[in-house]
Design a protein that fits this description.
6 helices, single chain, alpha/beta, about 50% helix
Length: about 170
């Protein structure tokens, strides 16, 4: 059994989703939800809340691997920088615990889960619910984090079958 922690970084709310994947590829939902950062008095305080919150989740749930969504260039450079800082804090929470970190672009995650790189958030939420047999509406950030974990589970399985690394298995060249 492999436990995968997916992270959808954000400067106000970071989505987390944890799944277990058995050797046959069957996925089971373990945990999902947002790490809300708005109680901090300033941005550095938010990063501290994120680092501590993710660290606590990692310590509690003991994932084997971590997957994080890559930063996309937003129209607002300030927002992109803040997102990059949050992503850095999330990566630090994982590497401080000696966990491997894998990265996928949002379009890659949508392609793997929905079948279209330009899928809408509602479509991602729906497919994550179907794939993990969850009932009810998923919180958007948590669904994105679970989608990242599902993507990595699929890529890991393909890489294992092909006898290559995960990046090579995903490459389209």
């Amino acid at each position: 059994m492999t436990r995968i922690l997916g992270i959808d970084p954000g400067s106000q709310r970071t989505g987390v989703g944890i799944i277990d994947v058995d050797p046959g590829g069957r996925m089971t939902h373990v945990f999902s939800g947002p790490v809300v950062l708005l109680s901090a008095p300033d941005f550095p305080g938010r990063l501290r809340l994120l680092l501590d919150g993710l660290g606590g989740l990692i310590d509690e749930h003991r994932p084997d691997e971590v997957v994080i969504e890559q930063v996309f260039m937003a129209r607002n450079p300030d927002s992109a920088l803040k997102l990059g800082h949050a992503r850095g804090a999330a990566i630090c929470a994982a590497v401080l615990r000696d966990l491997p970190v894998h990265e996928y672009a949002a379009t890659e995650i949508k392609l793997a889960v929905v079948g279209r790189g330009g899928a809408e958030k509602g479509q991602v939420q729906h497919m994550v619910g179907l794939l993990l047999n969850l009932h009810g509406k998923l919180q958007a950030d948590a669904a994105d984090a679970l989608a990242a974990a599902i993507t990595h589970a699929h890529v890991r399985a393909s890489a294992r079958r092909l006898g290559v690394g995960t990046r090579q298995a995903w490459a389209r060249k």
